[in-house]
Amino acid sequence: MFSPSIAIIGRSQDTVNYEKAMQLIGASPFTTLDPEQCADCSGLLLPGGGDITPAFFGQNNHGSRQIDTELDIIQLQALDFFIKRHRPVLGICKGMQIINVHFGGSICQHIKNATSHQWKGKDQFHYVYHIGCSRTDFFYQLYGSSAFVNSAHHQAVDTLGKGLLPICQASDGTIEALAHAVHPVFAVQWHPERMPDKGGMELLSYFLELCTG
User: Fold this and answer.
1) Which top CATH class is 5-212?
2) Cα distances (Å, whole numbers) of residue 4 to 75, 198, 199
3) N or C: fewer beta carbons within 10 Å in the chain?
4) Is 38 annotated in the active site?
5) Active site (annotated) includes residue 202
6) Domain map of the chain by residue range?
């Protein structure tokens, strides 16, 4: 059986959960810091992590933490590679923000309701709600009008990048998922790899279907 190779751009000590989740759905994960090694991969997964270097979206540091500029550059390069080849991309947490920045969007470096979203020794959980009337996007196909998701972030998408559509939001208006209008690129602010029995595997399997389609 064909097992799609999924590139995970990150440091191997931080991507174990993503690799295990990919293996559970029948994919072959490949973690690397070299975008050139991804040339033959079917899809790209941009994982969670620290905060993006604020200069990449035209700001000074106003609360960003655990910045890894080298990794930011590598992830943006890999994303550009896959977009130009129209291959599927899934962004998770920081990965969603990387996608937004790539398309010219900005990040709120510390959201007002951070205490309800950020890591507190463990994931927090809350509902997210589908935006708009379209029933063709990935969120509605998988979850309908709402879903109960985990949360471990203190930043969020602010201004949306060009071509990106908001897909769902938290009750406080925080954008929790987005998708590109043309490219097979989508992202979520939560961590599906950490909630396999609560809809996480369905989301990852959807991504895998895009990679094999």
Assistant:
1) alpha beta
2) 20, 24, 21
3) N
4) no
5) no
6) 5-212
